[in-house]
Write a sequence for this structure.
């Protein structure tokens, strides 16, 4: 079956512009996660969805970052007024109870802010 | 945010050699996971460990969940060129109910 997909694969934007990153989780997976990976670093948790609600937004670095999920499926991560320090790979993962700890990752979106 | 301490940061080995890497934390985790990430790809799950002291194998990979629940190691036997990549450990605490905490990664490079 299809895995987690993300689009676009690469995004180059100018400082100050808004960007939207999309994640399509594995069909039937109720949990969805966003992580950020800076160059040469590990993964940094951003936000977690269970269904359409986000019980844990603790990792969002600022109020310029927001995310939503609709229909218990697709999720969009929005970064407003992008800054150069937002440049990173944004990874999405999904999982399904009871194995909520076993997360399956998408290929990521590489964001470059000029 | 919290990260797990993973070592070594990088290693060069010859094809056929065995590899060992480990991960330590100041916090207890209920699940330890090991992922491999190839360039331009997302991490792929290799092994999941659910019980303290558990030793699990997946082909040439063997991983153990430390008895204190604060550490884990991953061994790769008889390395081959396709083992090249970055290996991440990750811990899951049911108390957080959501996120994985990732290690800093071990970059493995194999010389022929």
């Amino acid at each position: 079956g299809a895995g987690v997909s993300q689009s676009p694969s690469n995004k180059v934007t100018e400082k100050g512009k808004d960007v939207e990153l999309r994640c399509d989780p594995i069909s039937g997976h109720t949990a969805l996660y966003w992580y950020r990976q800076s160059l040469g670093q590990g993964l940094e948790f951003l936000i977690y969805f269970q269904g359409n609600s986000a019980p844990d937004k603790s990792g969002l670095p600022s109020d310029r970052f927001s995310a939503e999920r609709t229909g218990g499926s697709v999720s969009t991560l929005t970064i407003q007024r992008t800054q150069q320090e937002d440049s990173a790979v944004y990874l999405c993962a999904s999982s399904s109870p009871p194995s909520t700890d076993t997360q399956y990752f998408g290929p990521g979106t590489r964001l470059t802010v000029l | 945010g919290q990260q797990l301490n993973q070592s070594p940061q990088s290693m060069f080995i010859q094809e056929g050699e065995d590899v060992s890497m480990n991960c330590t934390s100041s916090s207890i985790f209920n699940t330890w996971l090991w992922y491999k990430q190839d360039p331009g790809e997302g991490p792929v799950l290799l092994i999941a460990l659910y019980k303290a002291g558990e030793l699990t194998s997946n082909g040439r990979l063997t991983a153990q969940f430390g008895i204190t629940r604060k550490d884990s190691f991953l061994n790769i036997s008889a390395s081959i060129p396709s083992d090249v990549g970055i290996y991440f450990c990750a811990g899951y605490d049911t108390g957080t109910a959501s996120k994985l905490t990732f290690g800093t990664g071990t970059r493995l490079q194999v010389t022929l």
User: Anything to note?
Assistant: The first strand of chain A starts at residue 5 and ends at 7. Chain A touches chain B at residues 4, 31, 33, 35, 41-45, 48, 55-56, 59, 91, 93, 101-108 (CB under 8 Å). Chain A has a mean pLDDT of 91. Chain A is about 0% helix and 55% strand.
